[in-house]
Amino acid sequence: DTGVSQNPRHKITKRGQNVTFRCDPISEHNRLYWYRQTLGQGPEFLTYFQNEAQLEKSRLLSDRFSAERPKGSFSTLEIQRTEQGDSAMYLCASSLLWGDEKLFFGSGTQLSVL
Amino acid sequence: SQQGEEDPQALSIQEGENATMNCSYKTSINNLQWYRQNSGRGLVHLILIRSNEREKHSGRLRVTLDTSKKSSSLLITASRAADTASYFCATVETGNTPLVFGKGTRLSVIA
After folding, report:
1. Considering only residues 29 to 48 of chain A, which have any Cβ-Cβ distance to chain B shorter than 8 Å?
2. Cβ neighbour number for residue B27 with a 10 Å cutoff
């Protein structure tokens, strides 16, 4: 297993455009998380899935953000009508449901909104 | 969401010296974890300490937890240039999920 994979690594878009990121978790992991990180800050929780069910969403997640995890495998995070304030590193992580709550992170997708 | 606070925000030491980073948090926790992040990359789990543990070791890492003071420390002994990274503490709050991260300590180890 190669770990958590995120695509693309970098995304540059113009304000107002929609973007979609993909995360492939470690195959046997039931839980999948999305975090957002800006320069000099720690990761901020956005949402997480247990299998295909989205169990929690942060108040940071405006209605322009939507995440899915069809069939409990890969996940996508879509941002509609991007704003400059959306520029950040978007990190995906996965973990086992009955594990030691240790998260395995992908390398992230760096979003720049011009 | 509440975050832990790491102290110091930045730390610069010579290779071979020990590095100590501290973390304070606000709520009751189930466990506390430390992660490392190299520039522009994802986070890597280093060590987990449960609320009923006081100290834990892993290689050159030593973590302590004081639940009465709601604080933890991470000690890296005999630091190397390759230890240069940002270090984050993260807590799992009692009866809650997911991990809540602090703002991190940026460690620079000078060869």
Report:
1. 33, 35, 40-45, 48
2. 12
